[in-house]
UniProtKB/TrEMBL annotation:
Xref: InterPro entries: Thg1_C_dom (IPR025845), tRNAHis_GuaTrfase_cat (IPR024956), tRNAHis_GuaTrfase_Thg1 (IPR007537), tRNAHis_GuaTrfase_Thg1_sf (IPR038469)
Keywords (A to Z) from UniProt: GTP-binding, Magnesium, Metal-binding, Nucleotide-binding, Nucleotidyltransferase, Transferase, tRNA processing
Protein name, UniProt field: tRNA(His) guanylyltransferase
Boundaries of every Thg1 C-terminal domain copy: 105-188
Family: Belongs to the tRNA(His) guanylyltransferase family.
Keyword Cell cycle: no
Source taxon at top rank: Bacteria
Pfam families: Thg1 (PF04446), Thg1C (PF14413)
């Protein structure tokens, strides 16, 4: 099972608050929100790009007895509360559930979301490059309509931007997952130092292509 949350009305919300096409602060807020979802709902992996977050769960996950209504409601509430608290501005998220029949379909799902991230990143960079060059909304939109990936890459290159050298999180999104790490502790019964392996969430900002 995968839960996907999306920001409601985020185009309007981000319009005057964040840099375009990408803003490090907004990205950090989305990563914080993804971290809260994977922690509180006991997910095993989360992926975020733009204003959406997808969280993967094990087949045996039985949160709220797998009640669709409760899962959707609670996940949207967690995302909304986390982002609102961190941003100090009230926002809302929608939530939906995706069910896959096998691991292959899960991989296809995340590849699909990563492909969307890359497409949106390229379009966003092209659009805002034109807008910052004082093109109107209409002219910038029409200039990109129906154009190939090669054309868009060339447009950016002509403006001093190499799309392939942009931060990987902008091109391909960000993954979050649990990892074990070694930590030195103390055993009072044995009165000696011990090595433990607790878990923590790893934030992967350098996802390779087709490895969401």
């Amino acid at each position: 099972m995968i839960i996907r949350v999306d920001g409601r009305g985020f185009s309007r919300f981000t319009k005057s608050r964040f840099e375009k096409p990408f803003d490090v602060k907004f990205h950090s807020l989305m990563v914080q929100t993804a971290k809260a979802l994977i922690e509180e709902l006991h997910g095993i992996y989360a992926y975020t790009e733009s204003d959406e977050i997808s969280v993967l769960f094990r087949p045996e996950w039985d949160f709220c007895d797998r009640s669709l209504e409760k899962i959707v409601s609670i996940s949207a509430s967690i995302a909304s509360a986390t982002f609102t608290h961190a941003a100090e501005t009230v926002v809302n998220f929608d939530s939906r559930v995706w069910l896959g029949a096998n691991k292959s379909q899960v991989v296809d799902y995340f590849n699909w979301r990563q492909a969307d991230a890359t497409r949106c990143a390229l379009n966003g960079w092209c659009y805002w490059t034109l807008r910052k060059a004082r093109e109107s909304v209409g002219n910038a939109t029409s200039a990109l309509e129906g154009k190939s990936v090669a054309f868009k890459n060339q447009l950016l290159f002509q403006n001093g931007i190499n799309f392939n050298e942009l931060p990987a999180w902008q091109q391909r999104g960000t993954g979050l997952y649990w990892e074990k790490y070694e930590k030195e502790g103390y055993n009072p019964i044995q009165d000696k130092a011990v090595l433990t392996t607790p878990r923590r969430i790893k934030i992967e900002e350098e996802l390779p292509m087709k490895d969401a």
